Amino acid sequence: MSFKTIEYKGDSVVLIDQTKLPSKEVYAVCKDYKAVGRAIKNMLIRGAPAIGVAAAMGVAIGAAGIVADDFDTFKKRLDKICDHLSQTRPTAVNLFWAIDRMQNVVEANRGKSVKQIKKALIAESKRVLKEDISICKLIGANGADLLDDGDNVLTHCNAGALATGGYGTALGVIRGAHSQRKKIHVYADETRPFLQGARLTAWELMKDNIPVTLITDNMAGHLMKKGLIDKIVVGADRIASNGDAANKIGTYTLSVLAKEHKIPFYVAAPVSTFDFNIRTGDEINIEERDTAEVTHVFGKRIAPENVSVRNPAFDVTPNKYITAIVTERGVLRKP
Known about the structure:
With 335 residues, the chain is an alpha/beta fold. Helices cover 39% and strands 17% of the residues.
């Protein structure tokens, strides 16, 4: 990739500021865990796998700043840092998975000095990033065979390198097919209200010279009816035990349309996105975001003052509408 989504560099977590894309390619430098938390909450970094990487690095940089000599004091202060980071985004399960993983590293190194534990946490956060990139490439390789030469593929939101440590999940599948020299054309939903498709997906694909056409969200059904969409590939922020998948708001609508038009609907996500503590998608906590994201575009008001607004960031696609789930371990089909 010609850009890095996130990295632990020196004594800082450095990440590309996705709120500035595509007009500016600038990087935010986070010197402490609170800055990492703000970056997650304010969507400077977003996408379930990328949030997981950021959370791991947030724990590591937070630990580095703790002044304590004994394990119990260090652990107590680290738990507060973990709790702070866990409050940033409620839906993406990778956030909690990464925090749990970092806490397990602390427990595994209980007998070592605080200095050694801090080093272990930094090393683990870098390992989370490296593993995520490798996982995405496996997802891409496993999913590439689902796409045929000449396919027109619809995707929603951004599940690319910007949403992961690098390479992407849904876009990883597309990149995998592209690397096999298949002629794939992508239709990217703009993805209101935050415009991740328009701002991020289109930008990523153009950088990789993968043909992409941007459409508004409400054009997707029309294109399906016209026979212009062959496959749909999306990411996921949390997948329940029964295969129900939470993804960016609007995904459920696409899945229903796909069923009506007999178009394969694929979800691409790492195994870490599965939440085996919940049975169905009804148990997934759906984040409600600031209403200004709906009433304003780039700071300019587009709706009447005091209008009532709803802004759920995600919806849940029932497993009955999902053709298959592509993971790093293979392609999962019913049952």
